[in-house]
Specification:
The chain has about 250 residues and is an all-alpha fold. Helix content is about 85%, strand content about 0%.
């Protein structure tokens, strides 16, 4: 019963705060459009770097991830976005993102050399890949929030993420799945349209600038921006309090 009360009270408050923060920092909605265009330009430019293409891809992608997480940090914790935040965002979490990518690379090598040859034969490579991806999705679900809200190194961030999910799996996943379900049922046709328009853009680069793609994509960014702000606020609440403390504060 206390769990249900905590879920309702905590997420009701966060839902309102997330809406207010998105309303005040509406410019965040356009960040996704910039990242999509930047990624498209990056992918088209890789052929000019030959053997260094992989390194350039990792560096460029990491800088974009760092920038987005920094913007979320500014909205969630400071409730303010500036041009300077956008400029400094490319390097704000770059070292940590690089380190996490390196850890993933080492783990992937270990899986390819030690785990896949054995378990892949037993259950099949496709089934093994699905299991591994599912575990990563669950255990590292709050990794983006840990990167920009906690002062840990790369390995420490991964370890803290796993511990956080283990301790708060109900309080964390129930609201996440609930919001995703609402977003899906309210805008099912929108997301289908975005997916089809992205496929069209891959076929013909000029489709990237079609009015329908831009408008549809921006609407989807409203949902995504709200969702990411919501996650950030939820993580900040759960990682700095306990259920008993939140219920106690509710009484007061």
């Amino acid at each position: 019963m206390d769990l249900v009360k905590d879920l309702i009270y905590t997420n009701k408050s966060i839902a309102i705060k997330a809406f207010k923060k998105l309303y005040k920092n509406w410019i965040l909605i356009f960040a996704g459009l910039f990242y999509s265009l930047a990624t498209a330009i990056l992918m088209l430019s890789l052929r000019f770097f030959w053997l260094l293409a992989g390194i350039v891809l990792i560096m460029g992608t990491s800088a974009l991830i760092s920038n987005y997480l920094h913007l979320l940090d500014c909205v969630v914790r400071r409730n303010k976005l500036t041009i300077q935040d956008f400029k400094t965002g490319f390097t704000a979490h770059l070292r940590k993102v690089w380190g996490i990518i390196f850890v993933f690379w080492i783990v992937q090598m270990g899986l390819d050399l030690l785990v896949n040859p054995i378990l892949g034969r037993m259950i099949g490579p496709v089934a093994l890949a699905l299991i591994i991806n599912f575990l990563v999705l669950i255990l590292l679900n709050s990794l983006p929030e840990v990167i920009y809200q906690k002062d840990y190194n790369s390995w420490g961030s991964i370890k803290y993420t796993i511990d956080f999910v283990k301790e708060n799996w109900v309080e964390w996943f129930v609201p996440n799945f609930f919001i995703i379900a609402i977003m899906y049922f309210l805008s099912r046709q929108l997301f289908v349209g975005v997916a089809s328009l992205r496929i069209m853009a891959l076929i013909n680069i000029t489709n990237l600038f079609s009015p329908m793609l831009i408008i549809t994509y921006l609407i989807s960014q409203v949902f995504l921006s709200y969702f990411m702000i919501y996650r950030g606020l939820l993580f900040a609440t759960l990682s700095t309090s306990t259920r008993r403390k939140r219920l106690f504060m509710r009484e007061w």
